[in-house]
Amino acid sequence: xxxxxxxxxxxxxxxxxxxxxxxxxxxxxxxxxxxxxxxxxxxxxxxxxxxxxxxxxxxxxxxxxxxxxxxxxxxxxxxxxxxxxxxxxxxxxxxxxxxxxxxxxxxxxxxxxxxxxxxxxxxxxxxxxxxxxxxxxxxxxxxxxxxxxxxxxxxxxxxxxxxxxxxxxxxxxxxxxxxxxxxxx
Length: 185
Description:
Layout: E1 6-12, E2 15-20, E3 24-29, E4 37-41, E5 46-51, E6 57-62, E7 67-71, E8 77-80, E9 89-94, E10 100-105, E11 109-114, E12 120-124, E13 130-133, E14 138-142, E15 148-152, E16 162-164, E17 175-176, E18 183-184
Antiparallel strand pairs: 1-2, 2-3, 3-4, 5-6, 6-7, 7-8, 9-10, 10-11, 11-12, 13-14, 14-15, 15-16, 17-18
């Protein structure tokens, strides 16, 4: 409670990362005898976290609009992705290969960037609060009006079309099983 509300969570193995409104990111072991470790203390609210499936990298997004990639053990900044959002970042998801990271903001922009910063694609979708990769080239996005979108990696200027309307309110979170068959929102 000393850090305020926890907005972002990322899990890998026996480790949970939690991002807080005061800019703290804690690394917590699910083993009962371990004490939480402060991994980061940033000058922004942390709204979202994602752990890379390949490597020891944690993506962090919040009020600055930037996506920072950090070493998940030491907290060292690896790089800041070169294309920042124009507003708060509310969702981040690494692609299955770990080479791409998708992010969304409150200004209705979804960005897909390579972790080395060499390529970027974008799409406009109303208030995306949930992102998940379904394979290497399909991104699922849950929107502010309750629609679910399926975006192909070759994002274009065409207006994305919803594939389902499972909610009447904002889709702010969810999980996709590793096989990419079951989605919980």
